[in-house]
Each structure stands twice: as C-alpha cells, then as structure tokens.
Amino acid sequence: MRDVAIAGYAASVSTEPYAGNEIELVMPVVADAVAASGLARDEIGITVAASSDFLVGQAFAFVRGLDAVGAYPVIDDSHLDMDGAWALYEAWVRLQVGDVDSALVYAIGKTSAGRLHELMPLSYDPYYVAPLSPDPRALAALQARCLIDAGVASERDFADVAARVHGADALELLRAPYVASPLRAHDCPPVTDGAAAVVLVAGDAARRAPGRAVWIRGIDHRVEPHALGARDLTRAPSVERAAHEAGAGDVSIAELHTQYAHEEIVLRRALGLDDHVAINPSGGPLRANPVMATGLIRIGEAAANIAAARADRAVAHAGAGACLQQNLVCVLEGA
Amino acid sequence: MSDPVERFVFPMRLHYDVAAGYALSRHLRSLAEGRFVGQRCARCARVYMPPLGACSVCAVPTTDDVPLPDTGTVETFCIVNIPVRGQGIELPFACADVKLDGADTTFLALIQECAVGDVRLGMRVEAVWASAAERSPSLASVRYFRPVAR
Amino acid sequence: MPSPCAIVGIGQTEHARCRKLSIAELAREAAERALSDAELTWADIDAVVLGKTPDVFDGVMFPELYLADAIGAVGKPLMRISTAGSVGGHTAIQAAQLVRARIHRRVLAVAYTKESEGDINWAVQGGGIPFVSPFVAGPGGYFCLHIRDYIRRADAPGHIGVQVAYKDRRNALRNPHAHVRIEGITREQVAESPMLWDPVRYLETCPSSDGACAMVLTDERGAAASPRRPAWVLATAVRTEPATAPGRDHANPLAGIECAKAIYAQAGIADPRREVDVAEMYVPFSWHEPMWLENMLVADTNGGGWRMVDSGATELGGDFPVNPSGGVLSANPTGATGMIRFAEAAMQVRGQAGEHQVDGARVALGHAQGGAASYVAAWLVGSQRR
After folding, report:
1. Closest residue of A to B62, CA-based?
2. Is C54 within 8 Å of A53 when comparing Cβ atoms?
3. Rounded Cα gap, residues C190 and C161, in angstroms
4. What domains does chain C contain, in order, with CATH numbers?
5. Predicted ipTM?
6. DSSP-based three-state secondary structure for A154
7. How far apart are CA C64 and CA C71, in angstroms?
8. How many domains are there within chain A?
C-alpha cells in the first residue's frame, strides 16, 4: 500500500441557515484546503465530491457545484451521494492504484434547505418503513432504548455525553423533556449548514508537503443489514470489523460521527476506546452536523489535531443510515 | 382472500427552503426591475449571465455587477414539438441558447413573434419583459425573446 | 501502477417500462445473473459498488442502505457512486480500481433504475424554483440544441439520425434484454414518427426503462479460475467539465476528448478506428452516434462521424459496429445505462453477445455520459490481457 497523507483540510459550519447557495458555501473551503496543501489546483490529480441532491431538493445540484471547485477546463472526477468520508475513501483507493499522486475531496451539506424529518424516512425501506415516515430521532431512540434495556447504559450516561459537549450540567439536562424517549433535544444534532475539503497526497509528494505529515495508516468501511430488527442495536459489528481491518488502536483522540449522544457509548465499546481517549475535541456532530460533510469533518479534525501535535495517533469514524448501519473507520498517525 | 398487493401509491410532500445565493439574488432582483445584470470575474473579466456566484474558470467569486442590454444573439436553437408541463406555449415553438451582448455565457430562452422556420443561428434578438405588475425576482419576468425589429 | 483486472461475470435484467419486482429484487436479479455467469457465490464477493442516478428520480434516498442485504453487501464495504447518466460507467471503473489497487480480489458492480416507481417530471423540473428556468423544454430540449449545432458545423445530411435509429432498433431485435423491440421495424416508420425536437423524431429517442446490470470483476488469479473467457480491462478514464463554462463546446465536449486520449494512451492504441473492433456508446438521441464518434476520436471532427454512419460502417455487419445491443435508444434504465454499455462491450470480447455478437471482436469500447454531456466515463476491454 502507498503511504497517503492529509496535506490540507478546511471546513466551514453554521447552525444558522447559510444564506448563500452551495457554490458560495464550498468555494472558500476548497480554496483554503488547496492553499494549505501547498499544491496548485491544477496539480491535483483527481477530485471526488460528496453531496445529496435530495436533501436540497434539486436533481443535479452537484453538477452546478463544479463551477466553484476549479474543474475548468477538465478534471478527473467522481461524485458520491454519500458522506464525504466515503469520497475520501474513493480518493484513497485511486491513490493506491498508483497513476495519480494527489486528490481533492470535498463535501457540501446544506441541511437547512430541507426538513430532515420529511427526508430521512425516504432512506429507509421504501415499501415497509418509509411510508410510516418515522422521524430519524425516533429510530435513534430505539437504539438508545435497547442500550438501557440491556443494562449497557443509562439516561444519565447520555446526559454526561451531552453535558461535556454543551458545557452544561448533566442533572440539569436530565430535567429537559424528551423529543423521542429516551432522547432529549440536547441528545440530538442541530441543523447545520457546512462544507469541508481535504487534500490527500501520496508517496514522495506526501513526504515533501509542508508541516507535520498526517498519515492515513488504515481505512476501512462495512455495512450491516438494513432492517433494524435484524440487528443487535447495542453493538456495532461493522465498526468492530472496520476498526480491525484499519488497525485502530492505541489512539489518544477519537473524532466520532455521533449524531446522537447514545451513539458515543456504542462506538466507544466497538472501537475499544477507554477513558484516556479524548472524544470529539472538536465538539462533534452534537455541536455541528452538516449532513454529508460531518464524517469528512471528523477525519479532518482528527488530522488537524495530529498536525498541531496535540496527538500522535487518532481514529476518525463516519456513519450512515439509521442506528449506525454503515460505518467507516480511519486511523491517522503523525510522522 | 383478496389479491396480493402489487403496487401502492406513497404520496410525498417535501418542503424546501432554497437559497438562490448572494450573487444570483442580486441578479434576480434586477429581473424584477426589468433589467439584466450579469457579473464579471475580477480575475479574468468574463461576464456570467445568469451569474451563479463563481467564475467557472478561476473558481473565485464573481463580485462585480455588470448591467447588460436587452439584446443578444442566438447561439443555437431547437424547435420543440412537445407540450411542456405548465406552459401554455403554442406548438411548435423555438427555444434557443441566447448570449446577451457583453456576456460570455448563454442561457435557454423561448423565442416568439417569429415563424419557427425563420429562427437562425446568429439571429439578433431582444427580450420582451412581463409588465411591471407581473414581474418578480424570477426568470419568469422575461416572457420571451423576439427578433430585433429592423 | 494498476494491477490486472478482468470481468468474469455479467448479468442484466430484461429492461422494460415497468418491471413488477421490488427495487431490491430488480437489483438482485442482475447481481445473481452476474454471479451465476461467473459461477461464484455471494460469499466469494469482497466488496460491492452500487451506481444509481439522482435519488429524486425514484424517491428512494441513499438506496445502498436499503439494498445492502439484497446485493450481498452485509459485512462488506459498500459504496454508491452518483454521476448522473454516466454513473453506470463510473461505477464499473470504481469496482475495477478496487481490484487494480489490490484492495479486494472480487468486486461486484451493480447499477439499476426503477423510475416506474418515481415521478421523473417532478424530479427534473425542480418544483418551480424561481431561478431555475420556468420554461423547461423536456429532456431533449438541452441535447437537441447542440445536435442542430453539430448538423450545421458538420454540414450533415438530414437522414443520418434516422439511419442510426433504424440500425439500433433492428439491433435490439437481436438482444433479449432490450426494452424497445419493434418487430418488422422499417426505416419509414422511424422517418415518419412524430417530430419531437426538430430534427429528432420520436423513434430516434430513448425510452425510460426499469432495469439493472451487474458485473463481477477480479484479478488475474480470479480470471484464471474463471469458467468462461474473461474480458480484460485495458484502460479506464473518467473526465468532468463544468457544464456552463464560457466557451464550452457542448457538441464536442473537452471531457470526452480527454477521456478518449487517456484510454487510448493506456491501451497503447494509436488508431482507434482500426484497432477497436466494436463500441457501445451513450447515444440517447440518434445524432449522438456521429457526434460521439468524433468526440471519442474514432472519426475526424466536423463530419467524420456522419460519414462513418452514412457508409454503413457502424452497422452490425460493418467494420466499426456501434451499439450492437440496440444501445440507449432500445433500453434506458438511466442508472444502469452506462454500466450496460460497459458490460455489452465486455460481452463482445468474451464472445457472449449471442445474436448481436460481432464476429472476432477482440477490443471493445464502452462509453457513458452524464449531466449536460459533462461527465464522461469510458473503458476499453479486450479478450487478451496486455
């Protein structure tokens, strides 16, 4: 496997609706990440984009986004309707093929454009589940309930996670009403607009990049059955498998795609993270959740910590689907 | 025992708040006033009409507003013989890629007041605006383009 | 540099206006046929790559999550590529990259569309947003503008489009998977069908189909163990350009030209007209055949393409058959269409194309486009490894 490093990262998030369009949202983020990498835009070998047209209500929105990212005159390029973490994986794969040495990955998440409680049900089984229009928070709450029933965690444990993220008092938080029992509003993510970009560099070019190198030591992703009833929701076997394949372990920082407070408990167990590991020093998705960019931001934030010498090894996790059906684990290490 | 269900209809109702964006909003407000306003890239001076906020060539924001005339040129066209949903346009009709004078990009426009057989590449056309009362921050403020009267 | 990659299993569904299967059943049907062709089981697959056109087309968002079980991806890496009409091609190429990087040994690529379950008019109209043109000329409204431009530039005679369509409709009769199969089709029927976007007539346009396609890609060991002749991936390329950039040539997009140069360079091909034996190309409107023959550097610019068509070269019996399967005009499950082109190209060099087999096909081109002809994917496959 070729050594691949993260040479540039930038992100922009806002829990106030962003008044511009996706082009205006992503343009400065891409420019900043490219500038940080030390590469010129036209030196970058491939581009991989991530966004969801459905979430913003316009088919082919991703095609218009090309105007903002230096696609002129022609680029080697792909796009996924998946979180940017998977776009980073696709870019990493291409760097392993060996015919290009660098990649620009970007993700756009203009969550405020739509209503997630209307839209997310459309990602569930179209015949048996979508027509029931279950609120995504309700489905997450099923998993939280399973944890409680199995004696794995309590509502107080969820409140402790939220308290850390929001700088609040856990007992105070427990007094808030449920939005979907046993989850409360502070256990759920805020609607966030944002974008993120990462530049990857392989081989010798990586060794020449400015600053402390941040290496991708392992990356893997796995998916579980779709039907919630077919899964043990107290565990995340796809996370365990991806972590094993990626060689996760011995990290001091973990950036996790925890849209809901209880997911932190599931992920800590699946990744084997003890109390010495700092979880989501960035604040995590409970502070900012630009859907489609959230996972890529986890990777970028973990990398930023290593680049700033706040850690030598970190793990970043990205998730997709109700109750963490699909998961990606990325292990990062400083030189 | 009734027949197995082969198909059912699942009605969806989705609400979106779509932001035109800073650059396009300025342009749309001009349309409400019956004027075309494009934007120029400060780096390469290309003029975008309609503007999306970025220069595709330079990947930088287009920040300079450029008033454009109502006249332009047909770059290419086609003659449409199928009804378009929600449009009460008589068939067949011509639609064209029009480049306004001074702009570097084209946009799709309806051509009227002209026999479809008379539409030509390079034809000079001018915008026909909706009345002030009918105009809004929308491309619908331009009713169509017609050949420039000689 | 890329390791060897071969296609050892190909499957597709019968494409039709409306298939009475669930979405999962449709995707699985193609995948099972590909596994069966390769004489492999679900357990033999290491990773799955799914391709699909925009989710607004059929109302199922992030369908890879729902389909994980049906396409055998549970416990495995699963990705979903989304590059508009070219997605089937990009998906096949991503699957190939996983093998060429030696990340996985056997990868299943699947692409499908079930537009009969969606509302495509709503999907493409964008719901009355004030900054999207209120005047939408239908799917052909964009393409036919630039077809006229080509006809003018190339000084092309008016009958070329009809000639292409007549060819593809006859070819479809030799393809049991094709959606549109008009028995006894005559040239006059095509030439007298209703005019939609002048000069393109109804029978010169593509249908809207339900359908799926799948391929199993593997490394040299997998190819050696294959019960049937493998098709070797000789070259792959994807290129994208901004659709509305100033000065863009919509009738001869740079993305296509660059993609073509890349694949011929990778495969060591200097003269594609002579060295490629058959092409499956993205022709949703008849006139795209001569246009894309020029765009993919098979024919000379500004007329070489229509002259090739006019000479009969692109007929099944000609010296450069194009779309022996009947092409996009005969079946267009949009999410799968690109992969069908890539798969049909592979079928040709495996000698697997039955009644639409081009005799002695050793090198085949698969080509797909998306967006405003602004996303291009292409591959070359061969009966021999290079």
Report:
1. A24
2. yes
3. 10
4. 6-119+207-224 (3.40.47.10)
5. 0.97
6. coil
7. 9
8. 1
